[in-house]
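tool=predict chain=A
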Amino acid sequence: MRRIDPRMHDFAALCLAATSLAGCVGTPIDSEKAARSDLESVRTLYRPGDARPTLPSLTPESPLADYLRYAMLNNPRVEAAYYSWAASIERIAAARSLPDPRLTFEADITDTVETVMPGLMLDLPGPGKLRAAGDVAAAESRVGYFAFEGEVLRTAYATKSAYIRLHFLSDTIRVQRETLDLLREVESQAQQQVGVGRGTIQDVLRAQIDRDQLANQIANLEDSRSVLEAEFRAALGHAPSDGAAPIPTTFEAGVPPPPPDTVLAIAAERNPVLRQMEADVRRGEAMLDLARTSRVPDFTVGIEADVKASPVMWRPTASMTLPIWRDKIAAEIAAAQGERRSSEARLSAEHISVAAELASMLYMYRESGRNATLFGVTLLPRARQSLDAARSGYASGRSSFLDVIDAERQLLEFELSNIEARTQQELAIASISLVIAGVTPEGAPVLPVTRPQPAQPTEARP
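tool=predict ok
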């Protein structure tokens, strides 16, 4: 039986050691564990088993909460943001892991092969570098989460905005039709006056002109309904191939917003854009910590074996980088400091922007509320009385047909202004709640609000 060269045992052992490394698993860092825990919490609500959860069954009588939940769980834009965030969490493991080991091979050859030296080399980043790189990736994933939450709220707002405008479009069409019926009555009254010699054919023509113009406006409004319905279905995530989604027939008015200071306090806690920028500040701080590790040298260790020697000769090797380029190190740190300060400035600018937008929306809410009260409570009853008086006076010959037409036009104008004011008021409430304050609707697949601990100020070192 042929005797196996003992040197082959050593070579086989080296190969076995190299291949066994393929099954190694790194140790997750704390920030990675927290990110994966957050992802699992959201996944159970949003995509359990990577499948869409059971959606609410929608009917025209379904409450608004069901429509909002359906949209948040079904809209593909939300889904894209979710998987983008999930992918960013997976990148943490790549950032905090050691580089792949390398198999090496050397040989000395003259007339014959003198030496055969397979080997194994391992690159070891300096202490703290992998953790710092993992923390940067974890901070980036946190930014990705708030992008997802922002998409959830934008979808809810798009759904509610279309819901509001659809409702008040129906009100507008109803008012226009009532006015059209009124114009037909006025036209008939004018024809009667012409028949008894107390009116002119010009009165009839004026009524017919207004009637035809109003009928055309109604046709345009009816046609515009399809646009709003398409917008509503798009917010729900309904593709054309999914069939028609039911359009709600009921309406739920929004809850009036709290005082400005309260809204600002809620926005500081919940607004996803602000929280995304806060996460970006923490990412900048993590990048600064990573840049400071450029002062730390990296190492390479390895071992080679001359399998032709007898006995086998082992050649351990080690090397270390020398971070001697101080200007390069200083530039990397300065760049990271600049990025952090830029993100801090963007956060401050966004706080100012949110306060300005809130002031604008609160003004719109108050203005539209005053207008709705003015038209609905004060002017509309008077306009109806004015029209009744004009029609009565026209029938008895005390007023002209122009008085009737002017009164009718004024009544229609006030009706439409009242509807516009109520529409703007509801849109302002939705914007304050969802866009500015960032209050998520019931059933939203998001994490509970937790305020992060303020980051320790970083020491500015060269």
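The chain has ten helices and four strands. The mean pLDDT is 89.
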